[in-house]
Specification:
The structure holds 2 protein chains of 2 kinds. Chain A is of the alpha+beta class. In chain A, about 30% of the residues lie in helices and about 25% in strands. Chain A has helices at about 30-35, 40-55, 85-110, 115, 125, 175-190, 190-195, 205-215, 235-245, 305-310, 325-330, 330-340, 355-365, 390-405, and strands at about 65, 70, 75-85, 150-155, 160-170, 225-230, 250, 255-260, 265-270, 270-275, 275-280, 315, 350-355, 370-375, 385, 410, 420-425, 425-435, 435-440, 445, 450-455, 470-475. In chain A, helix 3 packs across helix 12. The longest helix of chain A is centred in the first third of the chain and has 25 residues, at about 85-110. The radius of gyration of chain B is 19 Å and the shape is globular. Chain B starts with a helix and ends in a 6-residue tail after the last helix. Mean pLDDT of chain B is about 90; it is low at about 55-65. The chains are: A alpha+beta, B mainly alpha. The interface of A and B includes residues 245, 252 and 265 of A.
Chain lengths: ~475, ~325
């Protein structure tokens, strides 16, 4: 039994493969026709080949804990998500525009505070953000860039509009999955790569390395770049090790670094060796017990001083998290107009701020139709999806909102677009989002496509890896 | 190479070697106790000092010599005893786990399996069910792992730290094994002396040295010869001379090695000075203690030089 696209029923939401007319979208035609030429057995064989190849490659990714090994906690679906190159060009511009504006904003927050003075973003909002770090005021990182690595989550609504759902500016993860997914997909569908132009993604480690070296404070010497990890117990440890290996740099822990006279060194068997650039995967508040959280065991005392003195670059810079706040998010379109004098290319999802009394009243009244998000969480924790929540949960959230309105925003439920996905009952539509990665140093770089996350449960809108999501390769075609 | 990585590899090797020697020594002592009559008064408590634990009585309060289980539990599987076989393996595993990116992937898998195997088997082994088999299994798996590292890992700095760890620990364990005989001769009743020969054979077996001794020394088992062989033989891998030579070769392969190389010199001199015309247990005991302190001094210089450099070094 071959795949018959006329039997595939995406429903009312936007499907990334089939148009509303039930025909394959232009950019997806190569893939759709090819899949239609496979029978169910062949498709299953491809899926199994992918799983085998993941296990083989995954040896270094395997997490052993007390004898059990969790091979790649995150399932992979072989059917890629396809984006047309023309549409992608516009999204790419929109993402770059957004990161430029966010960096202007962060610099402004820790600098002159023009936007707050001009009433674009309320000053009390910034200072009440859990991620605002007073220790960063007055710092001047290279190129005026604070957020060097950003993972923005994009979703597509029923009418086909692509929205920015959130900007992850602290320690966004997932890029290693994006790269690994492509390696697997090239083995599974080599003929499709030969037949049509699919933009490659594998230059990411070198783009990351180039961006990091562009931040080096010392001129004229090959800079020493390191990846700073909280250690093996961190859930993204494999990605830290993977990126360090691909860039050919050391993977260090806090205890490997020492600050002497405002200069950062790592302890090596040849003695102390100067470090120029740190790609930090440690949450900013834990970076330096001297300047930030005094109880941090992961940090490096004096690191923030060395950074402020301009003797070491930190990516992302401490304090960046102030813009990774779901209330601040609501102001990004205004920031783009204010700092860049441009119209936003990518829209935000409409957002109600519970800190505004009128909007809070609306949210309380319509809580069962809305998604309620805490301002500072990530990973899908602490979220209420109104239409799926029980009456009791809604009541509990009403209390939370009233008690701490600054900490919550509300958004309409976006019916995420779908992509054909291999399931136990054949190919069915499953909801997806997209996380592209944007780099800013001397130059800007956007990954072609990004990491597509897929909710594997039928009808589910939650794509987070911690909540039963999987991932897919993402193709920019044309 | 990061000092932290070097430190973990060094300790992984030390703990592996310690585990292997502990398994060997417990196995041999077990069989020695079967050969010695009750009248010697020797029991498991007498071997504890060899492992760095003060001699102690069984916590059961029962002085019946038949109750060996508390001692064996302490030596083999007590997680609160940092010197127990299981603790050594757990530490080796933890150090290997946190340097997985550096080690050949089979090595990590193999340490992991070894530790899990030991954790499953040692509780029964402490009460005599297949103890000999379990201990031999552990020794074999440790040897498998050492061979795997030697045979599949590039012999760069990472490997040299493993080599340093193996040989320092091995030298230390050889001093302890010789010390076992000295301690028993000193601490036991007069009857022990009659079993002198049995005791020194057990020492050789504890170091897998019996056959090699026979081939190279070609004399009957005599305390002076056994001690001389285990201290000074340059060819037998568990003889202290050989271990120190290996350490010297590993030091030569590492960068900024002046301080550790300088520190090795008095250790070698101390060993050279250990000529034992007669096996006087009290003197031997003292000399071995001195040698152990020298080894500890060498370790400390290695640590300061490579494993924990700070500002100002």
């Amino acid at each position: 039994m071959k795949i018959n696209w006329s039997r595939y029923q995406p429903g009312r939401q936007h499907d990334e493969m089939l148009g509303a007319d039930g025909l394959l979208r232009e950019a997806a035609r190569g893939l759709g026709d090819y899949l239609a030429s496979l029978d169910a057995r062949q498709l299953r064989a491809r899926q199994q080949a992918a799983e085998r190849s993941i296990v083989e490659m995954g040896v270094s990714f395997t997490v052993y804990s007390e004898g059990q090994n969790i091979d790649r906690a995150w399932p992979f679906d072989i059917i890629p998500r396809v984006l047309a190159a023309r549409e992608w060009a516009r999204i790419e511009q929109g993402l770059a525009q957004r990161l430029r504006a966010l960096n202007c904003f962060i610099g402004d927050v820790y600098g002159a505070r023009c936007a707050m003075r001009d009433g674009i973003v309320p000053a009390d909002l910034v200072e009440s953000s859990g991620n605002y770090l007073p220790a960063c005021a007055g710092a001047t990182p290279p190129f005026g860039v604070w957020a060097h690595i950003c993972g923005s989550d994009l979703v597509r609504g029923a009418d086909g509009t692509v929205y920015v759902l959130e900007d992850n500016l602290r320690v966004p993860s997932g890029v290693a999955y994006m790269l690994e997914n492509r390696i697997v997909t090239k083995q599974i569908f080599p003929e499709l790569f030969a037949r049509q132009p699919i933009r490659p993604v594998d230059d990411y480690p070198s783009a990351l390395f180039d961006m990091l070296t562009s931040l080096a404070p010392r001129r004229g010497e090959p800079p020493e770049v390191v990846v700073l990890t909280p250690g093996i117990y961190n859930s993204a440890y494999f990605e830290h090790a993977w990126l360090a290996q691909r860039m050919g740099v050391e993977l260090v822990e806090g205890a490997d670094l020492v600050v002497d006279d405002d200069v950062v060194y790592m302890r090596t068997i040849e003695g102390l060796s100067r470090v120029d650039v740190i790609y930090s995967r440690v949450n900013a508040e834990f970076l330096d017990p001297e300047a930030l959280r005094h109880d941090s065991l992961l940090g490096v005392p004096g690191l923030v001083r060395a950074w402020r003195a301009g003797n070491v670059a930190l990516a992302n810079a401490p304090g960046t998290g102030v813009a990774d706040d779901k209330v601040v998010y609501a102001y990004v379109p205004e920031m783009i107009r204010y700092y860049l004098a441009e119209e936003p290319i990518l829209p935000n999802v409409p957002t109600w701020l519970c800190s505004r009394p009128g909007e809070l009243a609306h949210v309380l009244e319509h809580i069962d139709e809305l998604v309620i998000k805490p301002a500072n969480e990530s990973g899908g924790y602490g979220i209420l999806i109104g239409p799926q929540a029980s009456r009791r949960e809604c009541a509990r959230f009403r209390e939370l909102l009233r008690a701490n309105p600054r900490n919550y925003v509300a958004q309409p439920v976006i019916s995420l677009s779908t992509v054909p996905t291999v399931t136990g009952r054949g190919i069915e539509p499953r909801h997806v989002d997209l996380r592209p990665f944007i780099l800013q140093g001397r130059e800007l770089y956007v990954t072609p496509g990004g990491l597509t996350r897929v909710a594997l449960r039928r009808g589910s809108l939650v794509v987070n890896s911690s909540q039963g999501g999987g991932s897919k390769d993402t193709w920019v075609v044309g | 190479m990061l000092s932290r990585v070097a430190e973990r590899l060094y300790w992984m090797a030390r703990y592996l070697e310690r585990a292997e020697n502990t398994a060997r020594l417990v196995g041999v002592y077990d069989s020695l106790l079967l050969d010695l009559p009750r009248s010697t008064g020797l029991g498991w408590q007498d071997i504890l000092p060899v492992f760095g634990s003060p001699a102690r009585r069984a916590t059961t309060g029962d002085s019946a010599p038949a109750d060996d289980a508390p001692f064996l539990r302490f030596l083999l599987e007590d997680p609160d005893n940092p010197g127990s076989l299981l603790s050594s393996l757990s530490m080796a595993r933890e150090n290997a786990r946190t340097t997985r990116d550096i080690l050949p992937s089979e090595a990590w898998r193999s340490v992991n399996e070894l530790t899990l195997h030991a954790r499953a088997r040692l509780p029964a082994a402490a009460v005599q069910q297949g103890r000999d088999q379990t201990l031999r299994d552990i020794v074999a798996r440790c040897q498998h792992l050492s061979g795997l590292l030697a045979g599949t890992m590039s012999h760069g700095p990472a490997y040299q730290f493993i080599r340093l760890g193996h040989n320092l620990e091995r030298a230390d364990m050889t001093t302890r094994t010789i010390d076992m005989a000295a301690t028993l001769l000193l601490g036991g009743r007069a009857e022990v002396k009659q079993y002198d020969n049995t005791l020194w054979m057990a020492v050789l077996r504890g170091l897998s040295a019996y056959q090699m001794y026979r081939q190279y020394v070609r004399r009957r088992i005599r305390a002076e010869d056994v001690i001389g062989y285990l201290l000074h033989d340059a060819l037998f891998p568990r003889a202290i001379q050989h271990c120190l030579n290996e350490i010297g070769r590993a030091l030569d392969e590492l960068p900024v090695n002046q301080a550790p190389r300088a520190r090795l010199v008095p250790v070698l001199e101390r060993l050279d000075g250990m000529v034992m015309p007669e096996a006087d247990p009290a003197l031997l005991n003292r000399r071995l203690d001195e040698l152990q302190r020298e080894l500890a001094g060498l370790h400390e210089v290695i640590r300061q030089n490579w494993l924990a450099p700070g500002p100002g070094t």
